[in-house]
Amino acid sequence: MVDEKPKKRNRQQVYTLLVEIGRKDGDGLPEGATGAALMVYASGIDEAEAVRETVAILKQADTAPLDVTGYGTLDERLAEGHDISDEERALMGRALAENSVIVAQMTPFFEDTPRAEGGALH
Question: What is the top-level taxon of the source organism (predicted)?
């Protein structure tokens, strides 16, 4: 008789984060950029863990994280009326399956680029 243990419920969730980074030698940003905004999908037990892991990984990648704005989980974003594409959902699924941090989009800032302050995410 095989003793089967009940499967542990995965408590990990994927959080959507918007990370603003500044300049740092070797950061890979385009010449003339003053920084960038990164759209990130990060797994974690809670949003605080997802933020900590994201910041740690970005620092290891020679970037300078300045600010992180959390937009919640898929369910939270849907409840707020966000339009979430199949591509975004696939990236979120991958982040959950791999217990990883995925940078989905990078938008460099230049001197004349207006920065979104608490802008809507759709």
Answer: Bacteria
